[in-house]
């Protein structure tokens, strides 16, 4: 077999720290060795336009809806001044660039380093793929829609976009859970047989199948409608029409949002908190008793750093996604907030915060290695 020379990956300090951080945290051998352990191996409704979803009881013909004067005035609050559009475009554009770029670098580092092709790193690559989908296929198109209050991509991609929204987020969250469980088994139960690569691939496939099943209602219920203003202007709305009504009046969607919140937020928070708590307790409990040598003290410091980093991962996930899930639940009980004066800016902030969760992982790896 011809040996292919690996491209250099340590020419910049950032890449050097990043590759070492990934290697130290996610490489089975390196991670467990640093801990003194022997071998044993970023919701809610996808309707990102809830703050200006139309009430589908207007005068409607086919896929067209004629708005009254009062309803047209309500729509006008969503037309941003140019400087605000430029500002939000810069904020979201930066987030997409950093998230996609950072996660592509992570994938490249893993795939171009043979020693890093470990079981756990398969999960890492899957997480980065899901995060790239979140930051590109999800954010870009929904942001354009939110910014202009108009869906220019057609009904087919309306269905696809809403499907990808939940698919990518769920896959990212489920992969985070899988990583935490893998670390738990490796550290708390080091003598148990390690997960094989075949089993890892099967779990990754199950993650995507489960995520697809969870997102299936979005591709079924997504529709577009053309709203026509009395001055002749039109806009296209991409929305979810459930069997018992449109979004803000649908009991089915409320139940669906509760399920999404439980499965992609509450359950992952509980799972990761438990596994990382057990990991932390195992690490703190493994400290040397009595006088410590310099090497032992260094090992203890390394363990403390890893425990803190694990808690930061969980905290970042919780902080990023909490406002997003709360917003959709509140919007069902208090639909008047959808027409509040500054709801568009509020929602854009909440949406940016949730989607920005896909940015932080590469920086966490780098930060961990630099301390």
Q: What does this entry look like structurally?
A:
With 371 residues, this protein is an alpha+beta fold. It has one domain (13-284, 294-370): Rhopdopsin 7-helix transmembrane proteins, CATH 1.20.1070. It contains 11 helices and 5 strands. The protein has helices at 13-26, 28-35, 69-76, 82-111, 119-148, 154-188, 197-221, 251-285, 294-333, 343-355, 360-370, and strands at residues 59-61, 64-66, 222-228, 234-242, 245-246. A 5-stranded mixed beta sheet has the order 1-2-3-4-5. β1 and β2 (64-66) form a beta hairpin. α5 runs antiparallel to α6. It is elongated, with a radius of gyration of 23 Å. Mean pLDDT is 77; it is low at 1-12, 26-44 and 47-61.
The end-to-end span amounts to: 39 Å
CATH fourth-tier homologous superfamily: Rhodopsin 7-helix transmembrane proteins
Number of domains: 1
Total helix count?
Answer: 11
Mean pLDDT over the full residue set = 77
Write down the secondary-structure element order.
Answer: HHEEHHHHHEEEHHHH
Described by strand count, sense and barrel closure, the largest sheet is: 5 strands, mixed
Helix content estimate: 55-70%
CATH architecture: Up-down Bundle
**Shape estimate:** elongated
Q: Structural class of the helix and strand makeup?
A: alpha+beta
CATH topology: Rhopdopsin 7-helix transmembrane proteins
| CATH class value | Mainly Alpha
Strand content: 5-15%
Strand order of the largest sheet: 1-2-3-4-5
Uncertain segments: 1-12, 26-44, 47-61
Cα radius of gyration in angstroms: 23 Å
For the secondary structure, the number of strands is 5
Transmembrane segments: 86-111, 123-144, 164-186, 198-220, 254-277, 306-330, 350-368
Domain G-protein coupled receptors family 1 profile: 102-365
Subcellular location: Cell membrane
Keywords: Cell membrane, G-protein coupled receptor, Membrane, Receptor, Transducer, Transmembrane, Transmembrane helix
